């Protein structure tokens, strides 16, 4: 694809059009066994997930370990091929004729991983790691290294001190800053942050979070922020999407979700947050039981086996994401819940967020 076509596509969608639109994304991992190594079962890692990310916003994704957050991120980057579903980037369907190629999509959508050390090549210096992608995309050697040094300075690392260092010579926070600089090397529009601060000390974590906020403003970025830390997600996000066992159970503006969670799982998730307030001690477990086996998930609502309010309909039919009847519906920022609870009956007013 020529540079002019790529530039045209970067400006193709208007401000109201979502930068990323995901529709019915699905991924089952086969489990093989027996003498003929046949598929004997499947792990339903991501099952019919749909959402959108608006331009300039930060969408936070939360949920228990194993709920499908990281798999969703890898499906978006096509590090793992989806079994079904479509991904539309700024109006262009990824990987389809007449749409946008996976390679061009990756130029505009980059990812920062949790493990800062394994993400970097131990045989490459920091400048080489950052300059590698621009060089592979045709940028001249000197321009690529100039960009690498500029990005090192942008993330708070002096190029004179760190450009020629190797990963083992840096701390975890410094390596993650390099990974952020590397993700920005191709001038992307959307950055996926998959537990990017989970392995850092709290003091370093705060510095990196502030850095991410500054970079978002400076480079007009859009973030998909995945984390198990609910406080961090609340600080960083404009909207939140809650996942449970491969499906989306609730999504909406961060203030609304955190102040008025509707789904029983979301309530239990927030109730499990540790607190330093002696007057708000947790006296009862907010949620009991282990998550169901993703190889054989429950019928209907997947949370029903752990839900204190489950009824017969919960086993018969999977609830769809819909808006609550007892609240104002905002077309731009809807609060949607997948639940059959009679005290919060829903009426479908849109396919997804």
Q: Describe it for me?
A:
By secondary structure, this protein is α/β, with parallel strands linked by helices. The chain has two domains: 3-237, P-loop containing nucleotide triphosphate hydrolases (Rossmann fold, 3-Layer(aba) Sandwich), CATH 3.40.50.300; 263-347, no CATH class. It contains twelve helices and 13 strands. Helix 5 crosses helix 7 and helix 7 (172-183) runs parallel beside helix 8 (202-219).
Q: What key phrases describe this protein's structure?
A:
single chain, 353 residues, alpha/beta, 2 domains, 7-stranded mixed sheet, 4-stranded antiparallel sheet, 12 helices, 22% strand, disordered N terminus, disordered C terminus
Mind describing the biggest β-sheet? Answer: 7 strands, mixed
Across the major sheet, the strand order is 6-7-8-3-9-10-12
The CATH homologous superfamily of the largest domain: P-loop containing nucleotide triphosphate hydrolases
Taken from the alpha-carbon principal axes, the silhouette is globular
Q: How many domains make up the 3D coordinates?
A: 2
Global Rg: 21 Å
- The pLDDT mean sits at 88
At CATH's second level, what is the architecture of the largest domain?
A: 3-Layer(aba) Sandwich
Q: Report the top-level CATH class of the largest domain.
A: Alpha Beta
What structural category characterises the helix and strand content?
alpha/beta
Low-confidence stretches: 1-9, 344-353
In percent, how helical is the residue content? 25-40%
Alpha carbon gap, first and last residue: 32 Å
* DSSP E strands, number: 13
Number of helices: 12
Task: Please report which band the strand proportion falls in: under 5%, 5-15%, 15-25%, 25-35%, 35-45% or over 45%.
Answer: 15-25%
CATH topology of the largest domain: Rossmann fold
List the helices and strands in order.
HEEEHEEHEHHHHEHEHEEHHHEEE
């Amino acid at each position: 694809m020529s540079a002019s076509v790529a530039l045209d596509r970067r400006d193709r969608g208007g401000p109201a059009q979502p930068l990323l639109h995901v529709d019915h994304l699905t991924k089952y991992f086969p489990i093989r066994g027996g003498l003929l190594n046949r598929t004997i079962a499947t792990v339903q890692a991501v099952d019919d997930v749909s959402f959108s990310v608006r331009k300039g916003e930060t969408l936070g994704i939360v949920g228990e370990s194993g709920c499908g957050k990281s798999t969703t991120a890898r499906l978006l980057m096509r590090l793992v091929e989806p079994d079904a579903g479509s991904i539309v980037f700024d109006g262009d369907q990824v990987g389809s004729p007449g749409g946008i190629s996976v390679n061009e999509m990756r130029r505009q959508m980059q990812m920062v991983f949790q493990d800062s050390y394994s993400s970097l090549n131990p045989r490459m210096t920091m400048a080489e790691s950052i300059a590698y992608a621009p060089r592979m995309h045709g940028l001249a050697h000197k321009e690529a290294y100039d960009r690498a040094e500029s990005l090192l300075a942008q993330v708070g690392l002096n190029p004179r001190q760190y450009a020629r260092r190797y990963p083992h010579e840096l701390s975890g926070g410094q390596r993650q800053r390099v990974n952020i600089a590397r993700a920005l090397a191709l001038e992307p529009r959307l950055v996926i942050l998959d537990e990017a601060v989970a392995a850092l000390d709290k003091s370093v974590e705060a510095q990196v979070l502030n850095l991410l906020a500054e970079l978002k403003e400076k480079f007009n970025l859009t973030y998909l922020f995945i984390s198990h830390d609910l406080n961090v997600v609340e600080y960083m996000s404009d909207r939140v999407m809650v996942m449970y066992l491969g499906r989306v159970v609730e999504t909406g503006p961060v203030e609304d979700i955190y102040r008025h969670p509707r789904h029983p799982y979301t309530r239990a998730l927030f109730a499990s947050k540790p607190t330093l307030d002696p007057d708000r001690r947790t006296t009862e477990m907010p949620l009991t039981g282990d998550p169901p086996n993703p190889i054989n998930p429950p019928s209907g609502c997947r949370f029903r086996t752990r839900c204190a309010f489950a009824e017969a309909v919960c086993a018969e039919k999977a609830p769809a994401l819909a808006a609550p009847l007892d609240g104002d519906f905002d077309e731009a920022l809807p609060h949607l819940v997948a639940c059959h609870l009679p005290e919060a009956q829903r009426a479908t007013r849109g396919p997804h967020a």
